[in-house]
Amino acid sequence: MREALRGAIRERLAQDPSARLAENAPAADYLLRVEGGWFVQRAEDGSEGRPVSLTLRPTGAGQELQATGRGLPLTDVAASLLAGFDDAWQVLRQQRWLLGGEDQRLIDALTSPDARLRDFAIQELGERKSGAAVPALSGRLAVEPRAELQLRIVGALVAIGDRRAAEPIIELARNKSPEVVIQVVFALAALGGRTAEGYLVTLAGGYPHPAVQQAATEALAELARKARPAD
Questions:
Q1: Alpha-carbon distance values, 191 to 65, 91, 161 (Å)
Q2: At what angle do helices 77-99 and 2-14 cross, to 10 degrees?
């Protein structure tokens, strides 16, 4: 079955105008690695399928891309894995398209219905330190349904370093668990600024969970250390 799957994947790539199959590895711009799961798994959203992971690794300069697709839970394993390949490959194609454009492409992708593309756009905007993306990332923080992507947005905003992000980051902590609040504390300590400092003072002085108070106290000490002039 492996050879049949390999042949089917080659046929799909040969028909894709965005791809060019090289006869040997040295002539290739990218190497494609395909890993498929033989057993049906249940995702967080309750859906079932066989995971298929694709990695597109450049042979020279460039960025490695990765996407995981979900093959349909079919009794025909080969057909299931091919469906997963198709799913992941479309995500890789979109990632390559997003990388090839200006920041606005990535900003637009923050509202994609596909969480994988939102995740990619968030991380790439952080890597680019895109100041233009701060309003969109801050706005997305309030409506993003996935907790892990909310934290990715916080990380991207901190990487960009624009202190306008302090208020939306603080708002994220409202009615959240102490674990989330502590992560917000660390983010604000890295971001700095008056808004962040004021919130940390409030947490250190009266938050009902001692671990949060301790984290805020340590964050304030870190802010104070950064503010001291170097010897």
A1: 28, 32, 6
A2: 40
pLDDT for the residue 3: 87
Let me know the angle formed at the C-alpha of 191 by 190 and 193, rounded to the nearest 5 degrees: 125
Contact status, residue 156 vs residue 123, Cβ threshold 8 Å: yes
- DSSP codes, 134-175: HHHHHHHHTT---HHHHHHHHHHHHHHT-GGGHHHHHHHTTT
Q: What is the mean pLDDT of residues 176-205?
A: 95
| Coil/strand/helix, residue 4 | helix
pTM of the model: 0.90
- The total of other beta-carbon atoms located within 10 Å of residue 101's CB is 11
Measured in whole angstroms, how far is the alpha carbon of residue 70 from the centre of its chain?
18
134, 89, 86, 94: which is closest to 113 by C-alpha?
A: 94
Q: How far apart are CA 54 and CA 85, in angstroms?
A: 8
Q: What is the mean pLDDT of residues 204-208?
A: 92
Nearest to 166 by CA among 145, 206, 207, 137: 137
List of residues 6+ apart from 92 with CB closer than 8 A:
54, 56, 65, 67
